[in-house]
Amino acid sequence: MKKGLCSFLILLLAVTLLAGLVTGCSSSTTASKEQVITIGVDTPLTGGAAPWGLSEMHGVTLAADDFNSAGGLTIGDTHYTLKVEALDDAYDTAKATNNINQMAYTDGVKFMFTFQTEGSLALAPTLTNMKILNFTVVNDDRIIAQPADAYTYRTYMGFSVQANDYLAWMKKTYPNDKSIAVLTTNDTNGNVTEASTKAAAAAAGLTYLAPVFYDTGTADFSPFVTKILNEKPDIILTIGDPTGDVGLIAKTLNGMGFKGIHATGIVGAADLLKIAGQAPIEGMLTLNMPLIPGGQVSSAVLGLPAREVAHSGSAWGTAYCCTWDFYSEAGIMFDAMKQAKSVDPTVVKAKIDQSGAKFNYAAINNGIATFGSPASNAIFGANGGHQVTNSWPIDIIKNGKDTIGTIITPK
Amino acid sequence: MAQIFQVIVNALSLSLIYILFATGLTLIMGIFDVCNFAYGEFVMVGGIATYLIVAKSGLPYIVAPFAAMIIVSLIGIIFEKGIFYPMRNRGGLEPALATFGSSTIMQTAVLILFGGMPLGVPSIMSGQFKIGSAYFPMDRLPIIIGGFLMITLLFLFVQKTKLGLAIRALQQDQDAAALQGMNIASIRVVVWVVASCLAAVAGVLLSSISYVSPTMGSGYLLKGFAVVIMGGLGSIPGALVGGFVLGFVDSFGQTYLGSYSYMFAFAFIMLVLIVRPQGLMGKR
Amino acid sequence: MALLETQKLTKTFIGLKAVTNMDLSVNKGQILGLIGPNGAGKTTLFNLISGALPPTSGKVLYKGRDITGFKPHILARMGIVRTFQLATVFQELSVLDNIQVALHYKSRVGFLQTLFETPAMAHKENGIVREKAMKLLNIAGLTNLADTRAGNLPGGYQKLMSVIIALAVDPELLLLDEPMSGLNAEEIQTLIRLVKTIRDERGTGIIMVEHNMKVVMDHCEYIVVINFGQKIAEGTPAQIASDQRVIEAYLGSE
Amino acid sequence: MKLPKWQTYIPLLFIIFMFVLPLFMNSPRYLNLLNQLLLNIILAMGVYSVWSVGFINAAQPIFYGLGSYTVALLMMRAHFPFWLAFPMAGVIPAVVALLFGLIGLKMKGAYFLFLTIALDGLISWLFISWKGLFGGQLGIFPVPQPRIQAFGLDINFATSRTPYYYLALVTAVITCLVYFKMFNSRLGRVWESIGKTEDLLANTGISVFTQKQIALAVSCFFAGLAGAIWAPYITIITPSQFGLWQGITIVLGVLVGGIYSPLGAIIGTIFMAALNLVFTYLPSQTVQYQPMALGFILVLVLLFMPTGILGLSGRVQNRIKELTGRKTAPPSINKDDVKAV
Lengths: 411, 284, 254, 341
Prior knowledge:
heterotetramer; A: alpha/beta; six-stranded mixed sheet; five-stranded parallel sheet; B: mainly alpha; two-stranded antiparallel sheet; 4 strands; 72% helix
């Protein structure tokens, strides 16, 4: 038994030394005219959150490819191109912290995209100390409540930023509908959504009814739908819920005779159609970017699904839900680099912090993104500068297809 | 008042889903005394088969259950020959962990082959009819008919056929059954095929009211275990009673207590187990 | 006063009466034989006395004290120890460790003591326990096999060991469940010698369930015959041998 | 089995090795990995000890979480100093475990497993629903970090990861000492027999139930201590960190290492950490296959290596001896001994 331990220890030592060797080698880079900047992505590539994580990996990678093929960035006589390194955290706190630590300390990454809530929150101070620019999509608003000099920015408009405009638009478009109720998951996502909707309902003059929370993984929504219908809402909001859940809710609402408006988030009509069929989803509101030619969709995102399949090879051969979204968000960072004419995170950060700076939001023709817009400042006060506001669409599903109802552009 | 009526209608269809899921599970747990953590993936494979046949190929719905039964049975036989039979003398914990590993493999394989987005399957029936002030969604009707049909068939098989008798004998005492000159190895395979067929049909019916995804089965697994343990390991009437109890507790809990009300169900099961450690219909 | 006495002991499993109104008594130093056909309720009766099953009604008195429904480990501490038909030894442990585990309760070492005793203390304590264990092994003549894995021993030796394990607990009443089954003639002699030594040296009362009629007739002082959970006869071996009801129960009434 | 004297010093050498490791592996990244490894070792020892009495405790992560919440709440609400809150974070999970054991430990293995799953749900539900105390889904953030100012020392846990490493190391060493002492004692023999020959054990006067209670409570005590280190270390604790499947990886480590010895639990946990480290060096295209690889490892280990890495190394040694002609015979009875009786 002890002999086993002995040989094992020797093996362990060997592994430790090897690991040291590998990291020693990777950190030696020499200055040349051609420089590759590593963009680190920590995201769930496996497990339940994998559809989002895979979208993020593909979105960032394709945006970096486009940045490179558009000529990269030339400063002085040095030509910079981007390379994406994605690590899987399986949406686990310990793995996320390990990955972010690895990217920051071992791989010397200076630009980062993070996804996992606890890991992003816990390591935000470290990233600020190390001057690593981090774009995150964490839905938890505490990520914004960092010190003013924090290097972490949220490039995802949590529903907190969209709610006011969304509800105001509904109030204007459907003047007869007066009450709203939220049906959402009982997790961080859902709780944040619920709080935002409550505030926005008051601002828009809608009656806010008691919210209904369901457990993630629910497959039979009848009890929850029964509960929410008992309050007789005119509008039911399922924003932030996963695609499958929204589809089943639509089906169940239809089955129980709901005649009001069902409004949801970034969910494609095509996916809903497959799950719920056409009748239940007719007239639903979504925040999706319909990837069909025409309208205001930019040609950059139209080709994404095909490119994603080509990029990933056969094993990855599925276009995931929101690659276009992550593609556009990554584009904000790369546009900031271009505008700042620098690959130094502090300089890029200064550009982002510059009041009135506008960045390209690739998904929509002439779409813009800005940090510290009046809308985000109204919610986050002094920290509003760490929250992006970008152009976004509100869709109405007609004949089983997304059609753009309006495009909201930040002021 | 109207709401209570609706809740009861909901509870009925929810119970049948639980029962469908639990019967195959209880068969395996009762005979092999092992938790099969991969049972949810059996159901998921049934769903995948339905997706391929109905949504992708456009074949009629009736083909789906038969194709699913064949595919899932093959997987079941691989499980028996590859995991459970070689590990039959190693207690309950180690085979249970092996099934957990297999469940990960199956989930990942499906994720790689089909992606993580929900795969939609059209409902067998659609629309709804109104009973008083309550709505009954028609897509639940196949679940209820199919569920009762499967349970009746299983009951007849176990109670009235010679093979069923052998299975019952095996459940009582494996050693004694071997002494009686039974071919244990082949009866074990039969049990797996029966349980796999149940899982396959559950997968077909579930995917028609829900959607297919790599994790569609694992969500129900805990509820399935709850039903099996509450009803009594290996007891088919127990799965029936347990399924109805859990379905009603869940439906009322979710409507009147909100999410996480399944904790209420678990507290209820703990109480049941304190009073009757062998489950509602289990034998000591 | 009898060492152990049961009064109207009854156990009913859903609708089935396994043991009915059983009155039994055994004295210090007495070997009581308990016989009956298969399924007569002997093992159930054992389980009732040793606390493995709670009785439906009736009482068990030990030295005049009511011990009905006590848990097995409490009864073992009071001096009532049984052996089993199957699973008689700790298969994975060595023969010596088997006895040492059995001596565990007597040596009264708890979790905290184990943690905080110094190596010297542990060494000393282990020495004492080891010595006791070797002494017990010596009684059965098993000292040579002390380091063998118990599961590797032949069945006869395991039966012998199970009695030694029971002995390690210092029983005042020893319940032997079919101790002779599966043994050859030589091994039976060894075991009988062992049981008699225990009885003679310590005055232990013994209840023995046994199918081997020769052993029962030759070595038990008193015999109780049960069938269908009821006592059908009792008396000395000679009385039992000539009892018509016993012969009927065993051969069936034609 | 007699060992050469120098081999008995290997554990000591290993501990010294771990103590000096930060001197040459001081990057926060490695400290972070090592810290998590040490906490996992503490949890794995607990899983092993409960396993040795015949149960799988799927709720181990929730006891770990209970320790985290206890330390955070005591420091933030009751203004306890960390060093007072730290032991309390062990005591509270242990008390919860004892109460749970009153019901659970009377059940058979499969029922116990299910009940721990239910317990996990019950306590997470408490964390999520009791927003006033536990902060609901958003959890507790930021958890204050300890600071030692005494004897002219000023160790600030907020500015360096090294103090956490040493705190975790000392806790892990104490945990291992307790368990190794336990399993090498006669009481350890008793524990190993629980779950296999329970009736016989009860019949020698040992209260099997009490021993099971002790095993569960002690494992939860140490899990709580590990959680108490994790909370200030990560600074944010939320219910989702302490889910069921976190426990599965711990069980997996114990299994891979070898479930018949506490040493196997440690080796398996180190192996899993090393495997995860190796995974990070693989190209991102392989990432989807990693859970599959873990699944295959689990199944193959169970089927073909039931004694884990530890057992494998023994088998390899036997094979080498066979090849070199020094055959080691399997344990069997000496015929002469038997006749001598």
